[in-house]
Each structure stands twice: as C-alpha cells, then as structure tokens.
Design brief:
There is one protein chain. The chain is α+β, with helices and mostly antiparallel strands. The chain has 25 helices and 36 strands. α9 crosses α12 (346-381) and α24 (835-844) runs antiparallel to α25.
Length: 884
C-alpha cells in the first residue's frame, strides 16, 4: 500500500525512513556532530563518517545494522547553491548501514520497496545506475527487481565509485534516480538535471584506499546508503526545486519578508539570493550549534565565509542593516524537533551571527565600492583579471574572503589572480585582528597615500613616559591637512612616540601633546592610539592653539593610567598561568581586554570554573604578587622562545625575533605589551566574575591594584546600606533576604488566587450576554487588566458552562501588553475552527502572535489601541463560520 506523496512533509519523510529500517532490525542512532572525529576531513560530509572506524575494523559495531538521519556540510559546490535545483551546503542524509551483515541483494530490495511501496514512487519514473564493472548489481536490478536493462545505466568511477575522502573505506555504488519527464522517452542522460535527480545512493563498501591509491578488501562487506532528505521532499511535495520544500522554504520566506519582496514574483537573480540565504542560514545555525566559531582558519573560516555570503546576498535583494538573526529564528524553529541542540544553543547561535554580521557590515560597503572601482578600471582597460594584490587588499582590509571576490568577479565576467593573492598572503606579516584593532578606514585610506613619503613611527614607550616628537601627518575627517585649530578632532602621526598603540587586548595610552615649558602653549588631548602598518595614529582633540605639520612637541602619556594598565596586563599573564595550574594545563587564551579599570580574560574550557577553583586562583595570584617576582624582559629568536616554554598571546602575529616577558617560576609569555617590573607593583588581585561567552569559551573579569579598593568600597557601601534597611548585621543579611523572598512568593501566590477569583467573577457576569449563533453561543469580550493566566481560567470556565460555544477574551495588563485567549468546544472545532490558529491571527492585529491547541489557545500583543478592532474581527469571523 503506497502513501500519497502529497501527504509527506520533510519531518514525515525522515521518520518514515527511520521507521522502515527500524522495523527491519536497524538500530536508530542520532546524527553525529558536524565536527567529525576523523582528522582527514574538516566537516561531516556523509552519514557513514561516524561509522568509518567500524568499516575499517578498528571498532566493533553496537548493532550489525543501523539507520540515521545525518546532518552534513559540503562546500565544494558552493557556487551552484541557489542556481540549481538540488545543490546545498547543508543537507540531511538518511542512511541505512550494514556492518558485515547483509549486502547488495538485500540493500537493493529494501531500497526499491521503500521507494515504490512506502513512498509511492511509480516504477516508471525510476532509473538506476551501477558501477560499470559491477555485473552483480546490474543482474539484481534487472533479474530480481525487474527493471528493464535500458533503464539501468553503467557509469565510471567519477559517478559510481564512492569514497569518503582521499583515503579510507570505499566501494562501487548504485544510485536511484527520479525521472520527472518519462514521457521524453528512453534517451536517458542522467546528467540532465532538468529531467533526473539522484535521490538514493547505495554504496557497497568493500575496499580500503590507502594514500598511494591502492585498494585492499575490507574485513567485512558493508552497506552504506544515503537518501537525500531534501531531494525526496522535492519529489514527494512536487515542487520545482529543493528550496521550495517545507524544509527550507519557510527560511526563504522569512528573508523575503524582511526584504519586502515576494519570492514567486521575483526575477531569477533575486530568487538565487533568497535560496543562498535559506541554504546558508541552515548551515551556519547547525555549525554554531555544534560549537564551531567563526575565524580565519579551518571550520571557522567556512562558517565566516557562509555568514558573509548571506549578508552580501541580503544586500543584493535590498536588505539594509542586520537581519541574519531574524532569519535564523525560522531555521531554528524548523530544525529543533529533529535536532534539539539548535534550540538549546539559540543564544550562542544568535550572538555569533550578530557579532559576525555587525563586523562584516562595517567594511562591506567600502569594500564593495573599492571592488566596483577595480572592476570598472579593468573593463575600461579591456582586461579581465583582478590582480592578486587587489584581491588580498580586499581580504586583509575589508574582510572579503577570496571566494567572495571570485564570485563577484565571475558575475562581471572576470577572473582573479589566485597565485598572486597567495603570494601577497605569504608576504603579509601583520593583519587586522578584529574590529577594535582596525583603524578607521577613512584614516587608513589617507595613510596609504602618505606611506611612501613618511617613515614608520618609533615606539619609545617601554622606557620613556614622555619624549619630544615631530608632527609628520595631521588628518581631519580622514583628509591630510597642514594645520588644525582649537576645537578640531584630529588624527596625528609622529616620528616617535611614548604612547602605546592598542594591540593584543591592551588599550592605547591617553595623554597630551603640548608645547611650552609649562604646557601653556599648544595642547592636544590624546584619547586613543591605534597602529596601522608601521604608523602609530594618535586620536585627539585640539584644546588650545594650532597644531601644524613639522611642529616639535612634547608627547606625554597619562602616567597614572599607564600604571593601572601595566598592573592589569601583568595580572592577565598571572591569571592564565594560574588557570593552567589549577583548572587544566591545556587551557589557552581566546581573547583579552586590558584597560585602566579592569581586565578581561577569555579562555577555552569545556566547563565552568568552580567557586572553589576561582578562590584558589585568586589566592595563588595574590601569593605571587606578595612574593615580589621581578620581570625579566628579553628579545630572542621565536624558536628559542618557544623552546624555553614561552606562551603565545591570542591574536598576536610574531616575527623572527620576539619580546618575552618572564616572571621566573610564575609566567613566561610572548608579548609586546607594557608590564610592571615586579609583581609587587600590582598590589592586589580580585576576581569579579566568571561566565560562559560562547561554546567552550569562558570569561573571567577581574581588577587589580587601586581598582580593587574601588571595587571593595562600592560593595562595602551596598552592604552597609542593606544592613541599615533591613536592621541586620552583614552576616545576617542572607537569611533576612531569604525570608523576605519566601514571604514575597507567598504573597504573590495569594495575589494570583485573588486575581483568578476576580476574573471568574467578572466572567460569570458575561454568561447572560452570550450571543446565540445558530446552534452555538459565543462570547467576545474584554476583562479589564486581569493577567494572562486568570484570563485563560475564565475563558475555559465560560466555555464549559456554555457547552457548545466559542469564547474569546482579552485583557490589557499593561500599556504594551495585550493578552488574548480562545476556548472552543469540540463542536466548534468540527466547524473548521481551531483555537490556536484563530487566536494567532487575531493577535497579529495587535502586533503580536500566539497559538495553542484546537480547543484552548493563548496569544499576546503589544498594541492595545488595536484591541477593539481585533475583538470586532474575532466576533465577525465566529458569526460567519458558525452561522452557516
């Protein structure tokens, strides 16, 4: 008995597949992570990957048969995403596996039964392929399944010999194709995507391939199959492509709504962009859920590249500003039933998307403008290749992945000099690290023009707190000027400076540029310093006088601020060392911030640091401070530094010679920052908080020196204030607050009970006002300011008292908080009305949403001014539906 294809949604297809094989002795196993255990592949690309050790005989299977729905990522065909009906970066592979149990005959028979008898695909629409040398599979299909020989295609290694990677388990395969147009006859070309789609691949896993390409038989003959969930959904749901199935189209629609366009009425280019967004958002949601973070290497690079493609395609269809988080909500909602981790990791997913999108948007527009200029220039010159150096500048300065530049170039009929790009990448010693380390692009553009005429800034700040300096460049609004008067914001480049430029998490110094012996002449306040290539750019404000190129001034940093920063920076080094000693010696830094007020240290850790461990860390660091360890600062070859055991700081780029900060026996790190000369100068160290900031990443915030006293003074005032209010000693406060909390909970329960009784009393007054509509009674009314729970109780009670009835109640508990409830009897449901869908539609009129069961549902809204209109609409709909 076949199932009507139209009746199967994506989730039904998935479950039907798993149930079919479970009924045939297969153990249903969960999807593996997108981060594979296999070191030979970057991401999980197939359902068999988690079973590779079993196929190789390295591990014993828990069950001789298994079935899974495996999430996969492939980016080798990324340029086809959105352009063909079937290519994706993220997809689900439904699989059944045999570990030395059954082989070709049984696998083929079940695949045919599932496809034709369970999913109801007509045999006349199916074509199969086999490996050209696999006579056994050909004979099974023809003689036992009954497929005509002319609908069995023999194909070569490229199509019908499957392998998971350059090495590992492999074997011949047989694929089942769906023919959308059998009326075109027997001239079969399986490469014709407009007619055929391969939806089920049966791999007869019987060999292992080594690094030299040699094939050796595996210990067991195994079965590894894969059915593309999205492809089967396209077939059964009778839509023109995978993107218009219920697995992806809701995501596409959410992007279209944000852009204010209609997918079906859009041109092909817009549709491609919407499909790219739909596909890539699914991919990045699952990648982040599996604890992949955006970066410039490996999996992180793939994630960053996908997010940036989403952002760019959003701009192509007219979306301005940030939107990825809103689209991700649709992807999470679609996936959470099968993959609950996308909901449990929702906060991390949205935070990563928001952070990456915001960072990319800062430079995207300028990068697009530069690329447009490059393209126009090439076209005017009759050239067709973007230089590698230009592509690298787009990557290094504007965050354009090479692939994105290639994609845009291809749209313009151009290519990119990839070899030149790679050469520029190798030459580059220092790259922009993140948003707070990258200089304002308008300033950078001017510096690029001036780079050939000025020399690099000499940094004196390790030993000097002030120095004479010559003004080499003055920028105002990004433009080079010869002078600037009082009241002007400026960026200044000096020939030498004591000011530390923001780097390695340490903020830039503050201070002044001044002339005159007592500083009574020119005065420029410096608020920040950033480094761009070899130039230190001083961001300041001319408070007095006129600053001119060529002036010799005294550059003087804020000594108090520098001392605080030095103490916090050294404390960060001690913190990393203490974490490794007390928590886990594999801990590594994932980011930091060192300011005058505090320090922040991010580190990789799979778990939270316990309160006991935090206390031990704090005590250890304070003991190191008290022991007065002197700093030993030296420059040495990087190989020598690593040999001595120096730890590299996160985000830093190192040359052949490095600066090593060593507190012997305590901490030794490669670091270009400023530090105390002795740990005793830190004074005191206090941990303020410890929390998770991303998957596998924790953050400790702390204070040192004078800031500890400031921190303790604030808390002392709070404790004394609480003691006065509660008439209690500090040590009595916890019990006093606990008692008050318990009293408050009791009072809230009593208040809720009173509100419920009040709502019931108000609702009883509505019984006599019930309106008769045919055989039904309806009540549509507002109950003042009762809360949502009491409103629900009242609606349910009214419906039960009225019997064959529909009740819709509303209340306004606050100015922007509308509550709505619908309670329908079974007879109302049989008239085609469901409370969940009904009240959800009504709530939209008040700027809200909601839903629930067919008989009882709740919703909320924000616009109380539209409530009466919504209630009138509810009544009219009920009268129309129940009066017929």
């Amino acid at each position: 008995m076949s199932i009507t294809p139209k009746s199967l949604g994506g989730s039904q297809i998935r479950q039907t597949f798993l149930d079919f094989y479970a009924q045939r002795g297969h153990k249903i196993l969960p999807s593996a992570s997108l981060v594979p255990e296999d070191p030979t592949v970057l991401l999980t690309i197939a359902g068999m990957l988690q079973f590779k050790p079993i196929f190789l005989g390295q591990r014993t299977a828990e069950s001789p048969r298994a079935t899974t729905s495996q999430k996969c990522i492939r980016t080798n065909d990324i340029e086809n995403v959105g352009r063909t009906a079937r290519h994706h970066t993220f997809f689900e592979m439904l699989g059944n596996f045999s570990f030395g149990d059954y082989f070709k005959k049984q696998a083929i028979a079940w695949a045919w039964e599932l496809s034709t008898e369970v999913f109801g695909l007509p045999a006349s629409n199916l074509v199969v392929s086999v490996f050209r040398e696999d006579d056994e599979a050909f004979a099974i299909w023809r003689d036992e399944i009954g497929i005509p020989g002319d609908r069995i295609q023999r194909m070569g290694e490229a199509d019908n010999f499957w392998q998971s990677g350059p090495t590992g388990p492999c074997g011949p395969c047989s694929e089942i194709y769906y023919d959308f147009h059998p009326e075109r006859g027997d001239n079969i070309d399986l490469e014709d995507d407009s007619r055929f789609i391969e939806f089920y691949n049966l791999v007869f896993m019987q060999y292992n391939k080594d690094a030299e390409g040699n094939l050796t038989p595996l210990q067991n003959q195994n079965i590894d199959t894969g059915m593309g969930l999205e492809r089967m959904a396209q077939i059964l749901q009778k839509v023109p492509n995978n993107y218009e199935t219920d697995l992806i189209f809701p995501i596409v629609q959410s992007a279209a709504e944000i852009a204010g366009i209609d997918y079906h009425n859009s041109d092909e280019n817009v549709k491609v962009s919407l499909k790219v967004i739909g596909d890539h958002i699914r991919a990045v949601v699952h990648m982040i859920a599996d604890e992949i973070r955006a970066s410039n290497v490996g999996r992180g690079y793939i994630l960053r590249r996908l997010i940036r493609r989403v952002v760019r395609h959003g701009r192509l269809i007219g979306i301005q500003g940030e939107f990825t988080v809103r689209v991700a909500e649709s992807a999470i909602a679609l996936s959470e039933a099968a993959y609950p981790n996308v909901r449990s990791r929702e906060a991390q997913i949205k935070a990563e998307l928001a952070r990456e999108e915001a960072q990319f948007l800062k430079t995207l527009e300028r990068g697009e403008k530069l690329l447009e200029e490059i393209v126009n220039k090439l076209q005017q010159q009759g050239q067709n290749q973007i230089a590698g150096q230009d592509a690298f500048k787009l990557y290094d300065t504007y965050g354009f992945p090479l692939e994105l530049t290639q994609e845009i170039a291809e749209e313009q009929g151009l290519t990119v000099d990839v070899a030149g790009f790679k050469a520029a990448m190798e030459v580059q010693q220092t790259t922009a690290q993140n948003a707070h380390q990258t200089i304002d692009l308008t300033v950078q553009g001017s510096l690029d023009k001036l780079a050939e005429t000025i020399q690099k800034t000499e940094f004196l700040g390790y030993t000097e707190l002030s120095s004479l300096a010559e003004i080499k460049v003055i920028l105002v609004d990004g433009e080079a000027v010869e002078s600037a008067e009082a009241g002007t914001e400026v960026q200044v480049v000096l020939n030498q400076t004591p000011f530390y430029a923001e780097s390695g998490g340490q903020l830039g110094d503050k201070g002044y540029l001044q002339s005159g012996e007592n500083g009574d002449g020119l005065l420029v306040r410096i608020d920040d310093v950033k480094k761009e290539s070899d130039f230190f750019v001083h961001f300041g404000f001319v408070e007095r006088g006129t600053i001119k190129v060529g002036d010799s001034l005294t550059a003087k940093i804020d000594n108090s601020g520098r001392r605080r920063i030095q103490a916090n920076h050294t404390a960060t080094h001690l913190l990393q060392s203490a974490l490794r000693k007390i928590v886990d010696d594999s801990i590594s830094q994932a980011g930091s911030l060192v300011s005058t007020e505090r320090l922040r240290f991010d580190f990789n850790s799979p778990r939270a640091v316990t309160a006991e461990e935090l206390q031990k860390i704090e005590d250890l660091i304070n003991s190191w401070i008290a022991e007065a360890h002197a700093a030993e600062v030296a420059e040495m070859p990087i190989a020598q530094a690593r040999e001595k055991g120096a730890t590299a700081m996160f985000g830093e780029k190192y040359g052949d010679v490095v600066r090593v900060i060593d507190f012997p026996g305590v901490s030794m790190e490669l670091c270009g920052g400023t530090h105390v000369s002795n740990t005793a100068e830190i004074g005191l160290f206090k941990i303020v908080s410890e929390a998770g900031v991303a998957a596998g990443t924790r953050r400790i915030e702390a204070v040192s020196g004078q800031a500890v006293l400031d921190y303790l003074n604030v808390r002392d005032r709070v404790v004394r204030d609480l003691g006065d209010r509660f008439k209690a000693k500090p040590e009595e406060l916890p019990n006093r607050i606990t008692n008050l909390q318990n009293e408050l909970k009791d009072t809230q329960k009593q208040l809720a009970a009173v509100k419920s009784e009040l709502a019931i009393a108000k609702s009883d007054q509505l019984l006599n006002a019930a309106e008769a509509i045919g055989d039904f009674k309806i009540i549509v009314a507002q109950l003042g300011d009762v809360d949502a729970e009491a409103l629900k109780t009242a609606a349910e009670r009214l419906q039960q008292k009225l019997g064959n009835a529909a009740v819709v109640l509303a209340s306004v508990a606050d100015v922007d908080k509308v509550s709505l409830v619908a309670a329908f009897s079974p007879e109302v449901n049989r008239k085609g009305l469901q409370a969940g869908k009904f009240i959800g539609g009504i709530a939209q009129l008040c700027g809200g949403k909601g839903g629930g069961r067919p008989n009882l549902a709740q919703a909320g809204g924000r616009d109380a001014s539209k409530l009466q209109e919504a209630l009138d609409c509810a009544r009219n709909l009920l009268v129309e539906a129940l009066g017929n």
